[in-house]
Every structure is written in C-alpha cells, then in structure tokens.
Write a structure and sequence with these properties.
Chain lengths: 641, 379
Amino acid sequence: MRRPERDKKPSKRMSRRAFILMGLQVVFMGVLALRMRQLGVKQSEQFRLLAEENRINLQLVPPTRGLIYDRRGTAIAINTPVYRIQMVREQATNPKEVLRKLSEIVPISDNDISDILENMSKRRPWVPVTVTEDITWEHVASVAANAPSLPGVTPIVGSYRQYPAPHEYCHIIGYVGPVSDYDLSKTEDDDPLLRIPRFQIGKNGIETRVDKALRGKAEIKRVEVNSRGRIMREIDSKAGEAGQNLQLTIDSAIQRTALERIGAQSAAAVVMDVRNGDILALASAPTFDANKFVTGISVPDWKALNENKFRPLANKTVSGTYPPGSTYKMIVALAALEAGVVKTDEQIRCLGHVEVYGRRFHCWKRGGHGRVDLVRSLRESCDVYFYDIAERVGIEKISEMARRLGLGTRHDLPLPAIREGLAPTKAWKQSVKGKDWVVGDTLNAGIGQGFTLASPLQLAIMTARLGSGTNIQPRLINTIGDDLVPIKGTDAIDINPEHLELVRRGMFEVVNGARGTARGSRIRTKGMEMAGKTGTSQVRFITKAERARGVIRNEDLPWERRDHALFVGYAPYDNPKYAVSVIVEHGGGGSKAAAPIARDIMLAALQRDDHGYGPLPSQKRRTDDPDEQTPILQSNPKDRA
Amino acid sequence: MSYYDLNNDNLPSGFGKILAYNWALTLLIIAACSVGFLMLFSVADGDINRWARPQMVRFAMGLTLMTIMAFIPISAYRSLSFFAYLFALALLVVVEYFGDVGKGSQRWIDLGFMRLQPSELMKITLVMVLAYYYSWLDRSLVSKPQWLLPPLLLTLLPVALVLRQPDLGTAMLLFAGAAVMMFIAGVSWWYFATGGAAAAGLVYAVLISKGQSWQILKDYQYKRIATFIDPSNDPLGAGYHITQSKIALGSGGFSGRGFMQGTQSRLNFLPEKHTDFIFTTLAEEFGFIGGIALLVIYLLIVMFCVASAASNANRFGALITLGISATFFFYFAVNMSMVMGLAPVVGVPLPLVSYGGSAMLVLMMGFGLVQSAHVHRPR
C-alpha cells in the first residue's frame, strides 16, 4: 500500500485559492451592505411614504347635499332618503338562515336569496353586499327591531336628489347627475368625493354653478388596512360638513304664474325687483322634467327634447338673444338727448319712410305719423323719429348708452351659458364682419334691429334701471348657507334725471295713452299703473316687391319666419317696484302677443306685494338618524293663492 | 481511506476535543439563530408558539446533532462520503416519483414528523463526495480533463434531478457549490474561464428560447426574470414580492421602526414573511443597523471557516470546511440579493434565520462536519 503524501501543512495553492474566494465573498457582502444603505438610508423617506400608503386607506362618508328654497322657504330641491339593506357574510354565522329570516320581514324572493348568496361567496367575507334596495322606512324599522336575530344585516340610508316642481325650476336649478369621466377630465377639483363612483354632482343650472357650496365636505376616516384590504382599525377621522342650503330670490308663485301664462309658446319672461335686483321669476318655456335627468334620462326622451324646435333645454332668459326691436328706443332717445342732438320738445315729421343714400327705411305705419315729438314717438313707436335721431347721434353713443343700461354686457348670475348679447360699434363690425359701418346700420340700430341683440334678462335689467334710476344689478341667490349675497347697484345711474323723466313719460303713454301701442294691456287698478314699451322684431328681410304688394301678415308665415314679440315694463309707474320683460319667439306683434302676458305677470307680482323672505327650516347637520335627514317640506298656504 | 489519519498522535482526544471545539463558530451560529427567533416572534405578532418555539426546538436538535458530529473523527465522514452521496441521490429519485407537490414543484418527502427536502441534503453530500474525490486524487492530476469528468458527473446528476422538480434556485446553488470545490482543489483557471463563457451562452439561449418550441425554462420562471428586471411592471402580480420587500427594507431607515413595529410585515404586505423574506422584517424593524449586524455575523462565520481551513493540514477536512462555508455563503448571498431586488425571486431561505426544519437541520449537519474537521485537524 502506497502511503499517501503526507500533508504537514495545507498546500499553498489551496490556501491561496481559499483566500481569493473569501476576498470575492467579502466584496459581494460589501455590495449587499451598499445596497442596504441605498434602500434603507438614502431612499428611506420615499419607501416610508410607500409603506404608509400601503397601510392607510381613506374612507369617505359623503355629506348630504344642500337644499334649495325659494324666497318664501318652499323647498325646490330636496334629498329623498333611499333605504338599502346590506349584509356582511362573516358577521352572519349562517348567511342562508339569516336571509331566510330577513325574507319574512322584507320582500326578497328565493331567487334573490340564491343570487345574494352567490354574490357574497365571490367577495371577501368582510365586504358588505347589498341585499335589497328601495325599501320603505317601515321595512327598515322592522329590520332594526329584529336586529338581534339578524346578525350581519345593516340598514343603510342613502339619498338622491329630487325636485318637487321639476318643470318650474329646470332652467334655474338645473339638475344633478352621477360624476362622469368627462366631468373629471375638465375639472381641477381634487375633492376626493368626486372619485366616489356615481357620486351626484351638479350638471346644469345653479346645481353646477354653486356645486361646491351645495356639495359640502366629506367626513374622511383614515383606517389601517392589511394587505387584503381588511380594516384593522380606525386611525382618526376628519369631520365632514353638510352642503350649504341656498335660498333663491325667486318667488314660486310668480314663477308659476309666468310659466302658466306663457303656456305652450316658446317664450321667456323675467321679473325683477327694481329696488334690490331680486329676480322674482326667470321663466323659459317650454320646460323639461329635471327629475328625469337625475336618474338618467332615456334615449327617446333625450331625443325628443333635443329635436324640439322650441328648444326646451335652452334657458332663453339668459342664453337666448334677440333683436330688441322697439324696446331699444328708450336707449336711442336717451343717447340723443344726452348728446344734445335733439331737443326735448323737438318735432320730427314722419312720412312713413326716410331715404338714405338711395335706400328706403320704412316706418311700421305706411302712411306715416305726421309730426311727432319724443313722447309721442315712443307712445306710437314711430320708427322715422328714431331713424332720424339715431343718424344724428351715431352708433357709438347709442351702444355706450345701451351698455350703461345693462345691454351688451355680461351679468354675473350663477347660471351657465349666460350670453352677452350685442351693442354693436364700428370697431366690432370691422373686426368681426370685416366691413365698414354704414349709416344704414345706424338707422337699423335706432329701432333695435340689425346687429343689436339682447337677452330677456338684459331687457329686464334695462327696464329696472330706467324705472328706478339706479345701476341695479340682478340677484338670483339670497343666501348661501348663512352668507347673504350682497345687493349691488343701488347708486343713481349716470343719466340726466330730466331725460329719464321724459322717457318714462313716453313709456307711461305707451300703456296708458289714448293711442299707446300697449293700451290694451294697461292695468286699471289705481296705484298699479304700468309703464312699458312694446317691441316687434323682424327676423326676415321684407323685399321691395313684397312691400309693394302689401306685407304678408304674420299669421300667414311659417312659425320660424314670424316676428318676435317683445314687451318691457315696470309698475307702478310713479313708484316703480317691479320690472318685467317678455319675449315670445315668433309670436307676432309685441302689443298683442307679449304685452298681455307681461301685464298678467306684473299683476301677480303687484298683488302679492309682500315679497319679504320666508324663514328657512334650520340647516341640518349630517347625522346618522334617518329621520334627521328627511327634509322638511314647508308649504306656505299663500303659495297656492 | 487514509490509515494514517486514524493513528495521528497530534489529534486531540477526550477532554482535548472539547478544548479544540470551535467555540467562536458555535457562538456565532447561536447568535444568527437568535436573530431568527426574535424575528419569528415579531412576525407572528408576539405569538411565540406560532413559529419561534418550533424553530427553537429544531435548533436545539440541530445544535445537539452538530456537537455529536463534531466529536466523530473526520476520517469517518470521509469513508462515508460516497455512500451519503448515493443515499441523497436515491432520495432525489424517490422525491421525483413520490414527493409532495407544493407551489408547482415537487420537493418534499413527508416523513411524518418533518418534511425532508432531499435537495437540501444533497448540498452537503455533494460537498462531501467532491472533498473525498479531491483528497484522494493526486494534486498534479486535478486539471487533467479525464480527471475532471468524475466530479462533473457527480455534480450534474443531482443538478439535473433538482432541475426536474423544478427548482432552479437549488440547482444553481448545487452547481455553484461544486464549482467552488473544484476551484479550491486547484482546477486550472482556464476551465473556469471557458465554463463562464459557456454559462453566458446558456443564459443567452435560455432568453431567446422563450416562446419557442424548445423553451428551456417554465413560464413562471421567465415571469420571475421579467419582474426582477422591472418589478413596477406588475406591482400587484408577480412584481408584488419584490416591490413590497423593497418598501419594507427601505422604510426601516437607518435605525428601524422598532421591534414589532414594522407595518409591512404586521399587516401582511410582505409575502413569506417568516421564511424567504424574513430579512425584510429585520431591516424594517431594526433598520440598516440591524441588517448590517446580521451581515457581520454571517461574515464572521465565513471567516472563521476559512481560518479553520487554512490551518488544517488535512486536505479532506479543509476542502469540506471551505465547501460548507461557500454553500452557506451562497445561501445568504442569494437570499439577500433577492429581497433587495438584486436577483430574481428564487426560493432560497436565509440560513439559520428563516423558519424551516429541513434547511436548518441540514445546515447544522454541515457545520457539524466543519466542527469535526476543526477538532480533528492535524496541526
């Protein structure tokens, strides 16, 4: 047997390689240590944040949306409680048995039970599953009474928006609807409530413009969750805030009268208190059912609304702009008087037409009015008088006066799609139309035709300013929560009071004078006499040939080519309280179609002269008691008068 | 077998053996395991019975096993080496046909009181058989190609069986352990250079074979590689382990969030928090300091082994000591790289710390061999 080579010492080569190996190992451990330092020391902040994010979930308890009342305290937007029953599988020891017991109290079919059981088995055991929806308060009460025998079953109270008078306020209040991806894409609002699926936000009208105040703030609970989303404990919670209630300046009774009086026509009416700017009625017809939009409108319903030629979806009071026609004449008169181009008693001869650079401009009265002064020209709405003074004063001064009276400018109301209208200038025509202003344009503007456009709201403001002699501005909301919306523009308007007085006399004559264009619509009640102005604005061009043959009567034209009928007025004439403007789209003559409506609305306002604010039900804070959440519907007996 | 070794006068006997026992190494092992008990206690939310107590019981068994093995002459193991290897190989074959299937791979034989993982056992026996081979082979012959074939065959046989389970991680560890044995035994650098180039080629082949008819790895293994490269791709799916593990490690900061204060493990965000990912809990609760402390313990264990081997004139003993320490190194290096996002997630536990019987007992057996080589080393 060969003796193996004796190793007195380990071979040099082996220990060398052993140390090389150890060196490599130490180097690698160094790498590990550096990596630990990188993660644990350098990037520690970032990772700690991530760990917190992992651990903490936010739970939102949505606030109740603020209610909306009219000036009397009548609720016009409310929240209706909706009751649901939820069940948590792991709390119900025997879900099937619990459901069977529940079905004796609440209507649930055997089919439903198997669906619910299947639904529950698909989810994690602590996730609440909705058992049934849309049950009555009695059901909820009996479930609560039987709670001990129904482990894991909880009644839940939610709410959805409802409008008790869905047609009357559709254009003012608008409606709410579930938040959509589109809504999120265009808002910079980072309110976590918006991330709740199907959370209701304002989609139109005041609901959307005052959405934030109405929405309130969510109660935010921070909870610690484990990796599977199960709540381990509540860390803290930030109290929420119920949405703020609104009180509008609108008076339900007048709003209703206005809409009833308009009837089936396509029209708009605005009633404004000239003393404080309160808008008492803002009626646009036809209307639509706002409640249909809350739950999601059906496609045929939507199509019908969208294709209706009367445009029920548009709020014509602020979004519709029309040539003001003869209602513009007060502006032209004031501009001319201020410029001194016409004397207060100057008479102008009306021959039925004037000729400017070979073009004929007609008065509505074929034979002419003869000699007319300012008051008479307003009373009988002589066009030639205004052609003449408009040409003398020029378009710039007319439009400047129009803006002073609230036309062609934007008024800040919490409504969407408010349009400015147009008080044209030379510069405007040059930049928009690319053409020079001609004298004919000025003449057209003199009778409120041509480029001039105004909305019913603007005409009401104009009338209120004429009547009150102030710069009064409109107000649609009286209070937001506890905050009063300020009254603006009670200072005197920058117009010579003598001129104003003259124009007012003309307006009084329009309604009450022997040959006034609105004499048929005068108010005979002592102390309620109205002053106003009719307007008929042409939407088509009358050719020379047609004029020769005789102008076709409105009744013989298709609806969309008929004239717009307008009327503006205020009353009482000697102590103005309310201003009204009415536009009946393609309604024909202002004196026949618009003035009677305006008179009736004005009467309703005057007869209901007590326009103080009614008390609001006290603002409810969010509680979990369903009774507390039920809005109190206040109904004032006078409303039905 | 060397007749001479048995009669060496220089070898300690009786009480001398206890003096020659590597006490420092033993203390370091106890320290590492104590870190494990502490963390197992913490991840169980203070429930000692859940993981910590069973782990202590196993460690007590392992410590006893190591001590007993330490006093058996190293020459005895040398003569047993080949049989031990054959036994482990046989178990690998058995597990292939009778093993329990867990997590998509076959790895265990259920012995009733514990689950035996033959691939773990193979890590030790492969080191033994290679140490035996190179202590027998004349040193001038180690780099001759024909003398390279037997060790390669001894290695590739179990590697192939483990790959079939399939357990890529263990297969790679086995192969790496064998390569280290050959390196220490003095096989020429050229082979390692060639082998390295071949490995690079293989990796390339593995990557391009994806989706082909001859796809080399399983789909889930490709997924692991993909998520290793970019865990944020799939934060809730396959990248979840790595992402959450890095969050836990990072959120610990310099000094940690405090014992039993780690939210990542407490709230179950960490996967396998008591086994493969236990290091993340340590780093979350004791921070950078805690992580470095464990790394230092591991470093000292490796250094004591290398020092012991360097002073050991017995070639078998020295080879076995270095082989076991290298295997130990690979364990924690791979595990730590994995939890720190430096390596793909392969199922490799943190040695001495992770919860698990098989790995712990096998490792203690390995250290038993190291102790025996130390006690019986000719000076």
